[in-house]
Specification:
By secondary structure, the chain is α/β, with parallel strands linked by helices. The protein has one domain: Rossmann fold. 31% of the residues lie in helices and 22% in strands. The chain has nine helices and nine strands. Strands 5-6-7-3-8-9 form a six-stranded mixed beta sheet, with helices on both faces. A three-stranded antiparallel beta sheet has the order 2-1-4, with helices on one face. A hairpin with a 5-residue loop joins strand 1 and strand 2. Helix 4 packs parallel to helix 7. The longest helix has 14 residues. The chain binds adenosine-5'-triphosphate. The site of adenosine-5'-triphosphate has 11 residues, from helix 1. Pfam families: ABC_tran. This is ABC transporter domain-containing protein. Keywords: ATP-binding, Nucleotide-binding. InterPro entries: AAA+_ATPase (IPR003593), ABC_transporter-like_ATP-bd (IPR003439), ABC_transporter-like_CS (IPR017871), P-loop_NTPase (IPR027417).
Length: 229
């Protein structure tokens, strides 16, 4: 069976010629949650940005349902394979303004959108939070509101950068429950979270700071671990 989302040989060389990561392969079927972990500075955030076509990379290619980013067009690719940052960028206005603007610019005609307020209700957020200016929200409220906006835009693949890092344990479990069943690559530093949500795991080693000659490193770069339930 062909995977819904595939990335092969994704590699990023830094300006000083060291590899940040090399030959990363990812394949996701619908409903897969691939947990991405690895030491700080290994390039996890950068890898997600490469997969979303937000950052240029040195080599490799990816496809969604067999179609490349070039074929779909970069704006469409980014709305279908969506990167969700750990902290929302400083947006003007409210979370609903962001949602309405993203909806307006969505390049796919006839796309179905969910209601971010409905998603937020499951996470102890009220409609008022979505109509409040971003800078009046707490870190945890901001993180949940931004994630609810992303989910409501219905991307096929979510690239989640530590999506619960600002949340208390109760909110973390609520968010995890909503995300189960979505197709995601999910960065976390928490082994407990990985155990709760991962259908698969990928470890990104820290190549760029390795003192060994790069040829001595395991050629496969990242290591995939399969977890069966
Ligand atoms: N285009 C680039 N040019 C030079 N350096 C870069 C580039 N992109 C990323 N880096 C560097 O690569 C390193 C990896 O950063 P990244 O944020 O991806 O790591 P991470 O694994 O997500 O770390 P953390 O777990 O701390 O969030 C950083 O030192 C960053 O500055």
């Amino acid at each position: 069976m062909t995977a819904m989302f595939q990335a092969e040989g994704i590699s990023m060389k830094l300006k000083d010629d060291r590899w940040l990561f090399k030959d990363v392969n990812v394949a996701l079927n619908k409903g897969d949650i691939l947990v991405l972990r690895g030491p700080s500075g290994a390039g996890k955030t950068t890898l997600l940005k490469c997969l979303a076509e937000l950052t240029p990379y040195t080599s490799g290619h990816s496809n969604l349902h067999g179609k490349s980013p070039m074929h779909l067009g970069i704006p469409t690719w980014r709305s279908r394979v969506m990167y969700v940052p750990q902290r929302p960028a400083i947006h003007p206005g409210t979370p609903m303004d962001l949602f309405n603007m993203a909806k307006k610019y969505a390049s796919q005609k006839g796309k179905y959108f969910d209601d971010p307020i409905k998603i937020g209700k499951d996470w102890n957020l009220s409609a008022a939070h979505f109509n409040e200016n971003w800078n009046y929200l707490s870190g945890g409220e901001m993180q949940r509101a931004a994630l609810a906006v992303a989910l409501a835009l219905n991307p096929e693949v979510l690239l989640l950068d530590e999506p619960t890092s600002a949340l208390d344990p109760e909110s973390t479990l609520l968010v995890e429950n909503t995300l189960k069943g979505r197709t995601c690559i999910w960065i976390t530093h928490s082994p407990q979270q990985e155990e709760r949500v991962a259908t698969r795991s990928l470890v990104l080693p820290r190549l760029a700071f390795n003192t060994k000659d790069e040829d001595e490193l395991d050629d496969s770069g990242a290591t995939e671990i399969s977890i069966s339930f």
